[in-house]
């Protein structure tokens, strides 16, 4: 017997009727195709998300606004027709097609507008989406007015309430896209997500499952289900209203009250849901998937309620809720969508019981394996696990969900094959055949149960392998705790001290904790920063691992018997005050133990934390107290025949008035001097970053993608705009779009503006934007040289922030490498006119650019000409002097062949590497 939707008759018996109205049977491209298209786009974005703008937003909205919303319009209309006994007409079908075109077209325009950062497109697309849903709601309302009374008409009320929610969410989304500052931005994010996920999707799903869930289980609807549904809707609606109002006008705890009411409504309507499952437990993929989706909904509701009640500000609340949104999207929305479609599509394909059965078997293929991978993998992703574990497990979750797509095509093929080969007509003893069929089905069920157990074990094994692989890739993130290091011989008391520590605004709160001697110490660490990544490293070797904004973890310090220092190991964070102390109380140190604080520089050699105490603080080329890589560096050493310096020749602007670029932040090990390599933070893997060029009035649209391991940002001095939004720090994996208009000429610095800014700049995060002065004369050659300083950390390590703080550079360089243009000179010809654009990015030292043997007849500094060739005094300049973040250009003609050194005439810096040669030929 084919699966059919159940709707009770007056005698309280399930009435079976066709799911699809006659006018909608068969293939219908606008109904069937968009979901597949949105899901394909989603998979493409998941695969390519590191290089895409607004990638996280894009993934969530392709699923929720694209695939799920389209399905809601399709299936809520068809369920309403089945429950109200109002078959669809051809006119209804045409009207539905127009609504679907409007919805999907509007969604596409919204997505294009967000990617291109064109708010007008977002507004137009959002209006189309809201219009389609309002039209849909009005259609359902008109349908209800003309229908006869139905026992399950309350399902329609859920659809109408949901249709009222989405336009509110759309308005909030448009405001967010326009750009508002905090605290309104945070409030709107929470309200927008909650009203869409719990209102638009949640109400639709809950209302539908009243009848669909027992139908999928092939059991009767539990008595009283319709009453529970009718009573639950007002509670759910009031809970959502309170949550929305609190998000916009009150504190997080008030929104938590609204969520408690929503949970009460779920509990009321969930009772018949659970009773139906107990009467006939799920056995196939569609029911497993739907059940798992509802479990995720309840888990996320409880977690969000807890987050709201324990958060003092909307910053904390939004961070906690944002952490749960992927679980709501993948665990709830995606699984309910795939589970329902796996049950419904075989019915839509039709063709009789055998065709439906054949298609259903394909949709359910490897069902238990997929369910296990998706749900166990997703659960692990939400735990405080190492980043590589999260990457591999999230990849498995994506594969588990993506398996739905090929199975759709297999199901269609199986249905067509069954239609072409109908079963032989029944002959002979019918009772015997029925008995044989029942025995065959029972044997099949036993085999299915055995297969399910095997597939569940295989899925669990795959997830465990992903966890093991993630740990193997980054074993340092799960370093074992060595109790004896912290205990210093202290006798264990058997007691455990729990402390909660928060990382925010370059501080640990509290900064110190007291622990009785011999107690085991467990630190519950949470990163409450909006933007920055933090960690906690102890001098005894324990490491929390890096925590993105909103993430938390527990650090087991073990038995504590001595005072212990701690700090954040992100470059520069310790120097800005992110230090932590564990103080032992209630006893003296054991005999022979040093009761003074552990010297963190000795305990963790080579880390970014050089100490002020002891050691020679004089700048030198040698190993200092931080384990620097600068020992015995010969900056003039020959790097070898294969060495090639960075191309410094400047090309003309690309043309056009709009310049679009993507800057990807990455962590790359590079040679910065003879035999010295450093792990740099770079824009597009170069130091300096890409040089941009244009004219006054040009518009630059820069998409910043953070593929690093800590938070980063970007600040363009060439633009004039409030820094609040475009210059904000974004955590790893996220992106932002920075748009500015060049209003004045000059050579302008851009750089990472994340604190400590000095360390981010010194580790390679800078570049130049050249805006040509009007009527800039043509020259034969142009070069761009960016002066910066190197503060070397350990070999292969990052910048030594302590040296930056002491202003003790190991090298001063042009374009990122010491003396590189001595080994691979710049070239020009005698008599050619040559322009040198110079930018000093520092972060600390000034520059005095000079070409030995040359004189500058043109000097342009900070937006104005100081000397021009038509100067009546016939004067010239020997130096372009630049403070940090200043720039300009000089021009000259080389009189004869030869080698002309160029330097910073602060001679100690020239000797540190700010030196090169211009090779002039005839």
TrEMBL record:
<dbReference type="InterPro" id="IPR001287">
    <property type="entry name" value="NO2-reductase_Cu"/>
</dbReference>
<dbReference type="Pfam" id="PF13473">
    <property type="entry name" value="Cupredoxin_1"/>
</dbReference>
<feature type="compositionally biased region" description="Polar residues">
    <location>
        <begin position="1"/>
        <end position="14"/>
    </location>
</feature>
<feature type="binding site" description="type 1 copper site">
    <location>
        <position position="712"/>
    </location>
    <ligand>
        <name>Cu cation</name>
    </ligand>
</feature>
<feature type="transmembrane region" description="Helical">
    <location>
        <begin position="259"/>
        <end position="278"/>
    </location>
</feature>
<dbReference type="InterPro" id="IPR011707">
    <property type="entry name" value="Cu-oxidase-like_N"/>
</dbReference>
<keyword id="KW-0479">Metal-binding</keyword>
<comment type="subunit">
    <text>Homotrimer.</text>
</comment>
<feature type="transmembrane region" description="Helical">
    <location>
        <begin position="190"/>
        <end position="213"/>
    </location>
</feature>
<feature type="transmembrane region" description="Helical">
    <location>
        <begin position="125"/>
        <end position="144"/>
    </location>
</feature>
<keyword id="KW-0677">Repeat</keyword>
<feature type="domain" description="EfeO-type cupredoxin-like">
    <location>
        <begin position="486"/>
        <end position="557"/>
    </location>
</feature>
<keyword id="KW-0812">Transmembrane</keyword>
<keyword id="KW-1133">Transmembrane helix</keyword>
<dbReference type="InterPro" id="IPR045087">
    <property type="entry name" value="Cu-oxidase_fam"/>
</dbReference>
<feature type="binding site" description="type 1 copper site">
    <location>
        <position position="765"/>
    </location>
    <ligand>
        <name>Cu cation</name>
    </ligand>
</feature>
<feature type="transmembrane region" description="Helical">
    <location>
        <begin position="156"/>
        <end position="178"/>
    </location>
</feature>
<feature type="transmembrane region" description="Helical">
    <location>
        <begin position="321"/>
        <end position="345"/>
    </location>
</feature>
<feature type="transmembrane region" description="Helical">
    <location>
        <begin position="35"/>
        <end position="52"/>
    </location>
</feature>
<feature type="transmembrane region" description="Helical">
    <location>
        <begin position="453"/>
        <end position="473"/>
    </location>
</feature>
<feature type="binding site" description="type 1 copper site">
    <location>
        <position position="751"/>
    </location>
    <ligand>
        <name>Cu cation</name>
    </ligand>
</feature>
<feature type="binding site" description="type 1 copper site">
    <location>
        <position position="752"/>
    </location>
    <ligand>
        <name>Cu cation</name>
    </ligand>
</feature>
<feature type="transmembrane region" description="Helical">
    <location>
        <begin position="58"/>
        <end position="79"/>
    </location>
</feature>
<keyword id="KW-0472">Membrane</keyword>
<feature type="transmembrane region" description="Helical">
    <location>
        <begin position="366"/>
        <end position="385"/>
    </location>
</feature>
<dbReference type="GO" id="GO:0005507">
    <property type="term" value="F:copper ion binding"/>
</dbReference>
<keyword id="KW-0560">Oxidoreductase</keyword>
<dbReference type="GO" id="GO:0050421">
    <property type="term" value="F:nitrite reductase (NO-forming) activity"/>
</dbReference>
<feature type="binding site" description="type 1 copper site">
    <location>
        <position position="717"/>
    </location>
    <ligand>
        <name>Cu cation</name>
    </ligand>
</feature>
<keyword id="KW-0186">Copper</keyword>
<feature type="transmembrane region" description="Helical">
    <location>
        <begin position="391"/>
        <end position="409"/>
    </location>
</feature>
<feature type="domain" description="Plastocyanin-like">
    <location>
        <begin position="666"/>
        <end position="774"/>
    </location>
</feature>
<dbReference type="Pfam" id="PF07732">
    <property type="entry name" value="Cu-oxidase_3"/>
</dbReference>
<feature type="binding site" description="type 1 copper site">
    <location>
        <position position="905"/>
    </location>
    <ligand>
        <name>Cu cation</name>
    </ligand>
</feature>
<feature type="binding site" description="type 1 copper site">
    <location>
        <position position="760"/>
    </location>
    <ligand>
        <name>Cu cation</name>
    </ligand>
</feature>
<protein>
    <recommendedName>
        <fullName>Copper-containing nitrite reductase</fullName>
        <ecNumber>1.7.2.1</ecNumber>
    </recommendedName>
</protein>
<feature type="region of interest" description="Disordered">
    <location>
        <begin position="1"/>
        <end position="20"/>
    </location>
</feature>
<dbReference type="InterPro" id="IPR028096">
    <property type="entry name" value="EfeO_Cupredoxin"/>
</dbReference>
<feature type="transmembrane region" description="Helical">
    <location>
        <begin position="100"/>
        <end position="119"/>
    </location>
</feature>
<feature type="region of interest" description="Disordered">
    <location>
        <begin position="588"/>
        <end position="630"/>
    </location>
</feature>
<comment type="similarity">
    <text>Belongs to the multicopper oxidase family.</text>
</comment>
<feature type="transmembrane region" description="Helical">
    <location>
        <begin position="290"/>
        <end position="309"/>
    </location>
</feature>
